[in-house]
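User: For this week's homework, look closely at the record that follows, marking any run of repeated tokens, and judge whether sequence predicts the tokens.
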Amino acid sequence: MKRLADILLSVAALLLLAACTDDADVYNTPASSEGNLCVYVPVTREGDEVTSSLDPSNPTYNASVEECNINDLHLYAFPVDGNGTFLSQELPSPEASNMLNEKVASYKLQIKPGTYRVYVVANMKDVLDVNSITTEDDLKDVVLGYTPVSKPGMPVANNIPMIYEPDTKAADGTTTDGTITIKNTDTTPKTVMANLRFTCVKVCLNLIYNPEDADMDAALKSNGLQITDIMGKRLSPQTSLLWDGKFTNPNVSDDYAKGIEPKLYDAVASTGNGAYYTSWTETPANANVNNEDIITVAGEGVAKPADSKQKWLFRATYYLPERYVAKASQQSALKVGGAVGGSAIANSYNINLGHRKDESSTTDIPTFPRGTYYEIVGRIKSLGNIDLDCVVGVEPWQMPIIDVDLNHTTLWVSSTKAEVGSQKVAFIEYLTNVTNGDIKFGCDTEIEKISAGKSPVIVATNDIATHRIRFSINPDLTVDDFTKANALTGTAKVWIKAGNIKKYLYVSYDVTPYFKVDPVDIVIQYDAENSPELTKVVKFTTNLGGIQFPSGWTVSGEGQNVEYAQSKINIKCDKTNVADGTFTITAVTNPVTTTTHVFTVKAIGDNNVEQQIRVTVRPPVGPYRIYMRAINDLAWTKDASNLDEFQHSNMLDEEAYNNSKENNNWRDGWWVQGGADWSKDRSSHVDYHKVYIYTQIGETKADGTKDENTAEWYFTGGWPGQSMEADNNNPGWYYYSIAHNAMSGSNNNKGQAQTTAEKMIKPGQTLLIFSNGTYLSTGFQPHRFTHHNDPGITLFNYEDREGWYLYDPLSDPYYRVYDEKPTVVDVEYTIYTKNKKITAWYSRFGVNNGAGDSKFTMWCNSCNVPNEFECKEYGQDSNGKTWYRTILHLKAPLGEYDKLLKLKVNGDEIHTTLFDGDNYPSTKMHGKRYVVEGSFDTVTKKWSKGAPF
């Protein structure tokens, strides 16, 4: 009758503690009342194939994580000579709750006093469930069947049967009976180091076809070869669970001698294990080197070679039954089938399996023992049914071995995970019963320090008083080291070792280069009477060693003076080689008009990590400063009602301040002097940029007429007002200054103006109209805003008394008002049209007659101006439809790209609004131009963002 023992999985009462931590594993040494038998089982996890759980000098042998997988465990304790009580106990598979450390599972059992031989079996549940086991002989009678209808069947990588048998040799090499004795007087549990052993054999088959081999058969070389199938020959139909220690078997049955012949690989049916590779390295000296293969493949394997005439390697790994025979003719083998040149002509190659204990002997019988790894390298050079001459590496195949006493040490950590960064550390608490001198820390994850060998990624500092571990990035490693190692982010494997217990922790790290500057847009209002407000502090943080300013600057000491137009600022930074620091920016002079300085700071070192800084210096708060600029207005005026064609050939890209009176930005189309040549002019023209400032009480009617009692007060004289000044600090912009308490200079002597002679300028009440001062007798003309019959623009009410008015006749609304100077950019509207070309564009705006019932038309029918307005074929889509790409260069305030213009497609066949009037985003740059893309389907008449393909 099987009896269930009480299993104490390391932590019964301490699970409550674990629940209060982050994935914490708690390990306690049990008191005698908790369990008198401790069983330890080795566990191999990802990344642990080469190193054992306890000591780097105690490795696994050619065993992968998948092969070491434990799905089920069963323990048998057989009393010796009736001294004790038989125990059959199913154990849970290793998991966090029963792990002594990362690589050792711990099980505590209460067993009656006596003398026992203890076995532990893994991955055998289907076999054990059908066998009644109450004695040691019963267990020895258990067999493993490998036919399709037997259990467990042919082994598979993630469920290989394993067994621990009682040791028959002591640590000193002397013979032992493999028993343990448990007494009532024991004060500490007895231990079993259940070092599991595989019950089968691992075979790694490498077949090489290389037409460059000198002795390659000519027919084989010219026709190529492909593996069709691999058969097992004379494989053991069954084996015993327990090995008797013998390498030969003189008394084999006829069925055993004949064996079974399973198909291990079938190319046609796509079954079994096997893949082809075209790249590999071969190191014959590794034939007898542990954990080193003769063949190392590169890349991913494929089901069949792309060209069977070219060099290839076929690799397959099989797990086969052990075999012990009476004579060599009974040994197991592999039969490899191959097709030449894709024909049905069969070729086969025989590979005998196993080895002699003494390879120099001619009389030793080959053996094929469990726990052995065979790496076979065979070169296919000839046709026919032959024995293939192979190089065979024979090495042990086993899991790590636990060979130390783990029973008396305790270790608890508050978390098994942590996160660190360049400027971020992490702490984990721990408790242990070992002395401080026996606590060790380390990091298994290393990277190559440039020109200085490998260094650990994480360093740990132990605070003995508080039992806290401080984790941080190794200060000896630079970001360049991490970058070169392609390891800017990752998870480092860190360990804490208390006595013989080694607990692994996983520390995520991120040393991605960063360089942060705040703020990056600085505004300074110049006020000589308030010097503290003239200086702004900018903070920077970086993990790249510090900050560097533009070449040639000296920012220490007195700092660096930087002049732009009439504005001078000073940049000062006393400490640049720090991770966290500051620098100051001070306005030194009155800029007269708002001026923006732009410079770039970088992180120290050879990198592209940089940040642009914009410093806007405003003049003292005083008069209203009214700025205006016109864009996309390059069309000559034929007369007051009509425009000539838009002059794309005279469009110029934006230009920064150049300390010159000539600049691309001045060309705005408002200078209309007869005979002028725009192509040669880059100057400002103040006489053609006027502002009319007035206050009106009474409405203007839709037809442009006013009530006879409408009162008006004029601050800039009569229409069209006063000329504006060219702002050379901000090329393209004109400005007009007027006192914040200015009084009107005249009025129209109507309505309230008859009794109130003056009005003070007032935001929200005072109105503005900008124009180029032409066609004064008509009132309407294209180069003005607001347009004829539209009410004037109200004066802004901004705290700094500065406002920026931007006019664009191709936008809706056709003017915008800003508190801060908008950034005007060049935009390449990139338009894709299906099947048909864009031939022209036009836009209607404003008022072009006295009645107010007609608009101006801005237009361009010349779609042939390189890089400005041109259409070319783009390509064909997946449906074979031809698409065309049109480039249209215009200007826009940054981020506000919508335009109200119509495109003509295929002449007058289709008229469509650009991007359907939407503000499509910019997706890339073309030089300094912003590219905004959209696609138009001429069949569905639908727009979509981006390119069609």
About this structure: The chain has a mean pLDDT of 87.
